Amino acid sequence: MSFAGLKVVAFESRRAAEIAELIRRQQGDPFVAPSMREAPIERNDEAFRFAQRLFAGEFDMMILLTGVGTRILNQTLATRYPPEKFAEALRNLTVVPRGPKPIAVLRELNVSFAVTVPEPNTWREILAATEGRPERRIAVQEYGRPSTELIDGLRARGADVTPVRVYQWELPEDTGPLREAAERIAAQELDVALFTTSVQIDHLLRVAAEKGIEDYVRTALTKMVVASVGPATTEALEDNGIHPDFEPSHPKMGYLVQETAGRAPALLQAKR
Predict the structure, then answer these.
(1) What is the domain class of 39-169 according to CATH?
(2) Lower Cβ count inside 10 Å, N or C end of the chain?
């Protein structure tokens, strides 16, 4: 099974060329609209306040949610402290990477980790993986949106939790493709929408609202096949009133494209 010529919109930024090629291999007609960029917080006083406490030994555990955030945090602290100081501090903690990307950065830093979080690597799996552990002073490296459920869950256990936000999601510098995607969705010119992270839907609806076509986009998405890479993205879609039709067996981009291709023609036919 394949997309069989269906028009597929995706919102990848860093891996835009890769997802376009994956869609083509599945006989889809891709339109990739980069939807975001990871922007470091310019004056990251929060990160440096965290560093002071980290180096003073005030934490027992650190949860790393993203590879990009881990790397940026390391680079940020290296502007004020010796380059190895962050890695040295992590070696004295229980380190919990959410998935393969922060694990890769930890390997670069030569830092081991004590807890493995299973797929699909959401806040639920993090809470389950850390259940019963003795650490109570916990730092959480956040990403573009607050990790409310995770932090609330840890605090409900009696933990003292410090969120550390090191970057934020912003619109891409060139919003032209994203605006065109909103227009083409509103005009019902596309068949399948692939979402690989939660912020993509926020930014799509944001540019649609700016153009006065948000209601048209929402209506059109109900007539398209909407596929979500995994539970966290599905929750964001649901929070925005958009109900995804498909979620792959593993929360990976390759699985998303391949498995959606196999299901999309029948799903689309059922909608129309």
Answers:
(1) alpha beta
(2) C
Q: What are phi and psi of 186, to 5 degrees?
A: -60, -35
Q: Are strands 167-170 and 37-40 parallel, antiparallel or unpaired?
A: antiparallel
Polymer length of the chain: 272
The reported pTM is 0.79
- Per-residue model confidence as pLDDT tens digits over 134-177: 999 999 998 767 789 999 999 999 999 999 988 778 999 999 99
Domain ranges of the chain: 7-36+173-271, 39-169
Spatial separation of the C-alpha atoms in residues 150 and 147, rounded to whole Å: 6
CATH number of 7-36+173-271: 3.40.50.10090
